[in-house]
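Internal tracking record. Fields below are filled automatically when a chain is submitted to the structure queue. Please do not edit lines marked as system-generated. If the sequence contains nonstandard residues, flag them in the REMARKS field before resubmitting.
Queue: standard
Priority: normal
Entity type: single polypeptide chain
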Amino acid sequence: MIEIRGLQTRFGPQIVHDDLDLAVRRGEVIGIVGGSGSGKSVLLRTIIGLNRPSQGSIRILGQSTDGLDAEGWRKLQSKWGVLFQNGALFSSLTVAENVQAPMREQVELSPALMHELAGLKIRLVGLPMDSATKFPSQLSGGMKKRAGLARALALDPEIVFLDEPTAGLDPIGAAEFDDLVKSLRQSLGFTVVMVTHDLDTLVAVCDRIAVLVDRKIRVGTLQELLRDEHPWIKSYFHGPRARAARIG
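SYSTEM-GENERATED OUTPUT FOLLOWS
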């Protein structure tokens, strides 16, 4: 689904990723973790075209992103959905209008059909239908996440990108959101690329984990990474929080 080779991203003299390789398989949930400043969200934003890499190649759904014009990006972006941290909902639009925004941007549908589809996506993520007419300021943190996920699913994407989806949620809300992502992935069959720091999410949802260390990436199952001797990986997966999450 995604193939990254020799990726370098930098901001002025600061190199964030250097000669980074990553392959994402169809239908999997892959979690991206790393220490502060390791470039987790930078990597996600680079994959979806919000940052331009200094070197290397990115192929998504078999198509190279190098040299894509605006129309090429528009067509490719219609095949994925993104849940940004904190939802990133348009504050002046209702939940239903937020969900309809990708439809208005990417496809030509009648207002009646957009209304029907928005309602379907809102119900799909477990929100009550009366939330459709509410504005983001009227929603709880967990409801904002679900509304953002409904918008990410608006165009029936093949890939869903999630940036810290459980950040700011209490343990019960985070577990419920993990279950929702897992259930939707199983029923709809999309691929998930998830940036997270939540060890419980890694255990509950992810098939493989990609760890950003030393400007590169190491990928494996949880059990494989538990055997990795890199100091940061060892500390992360064998520390007190890992034990609390029943890792190992």
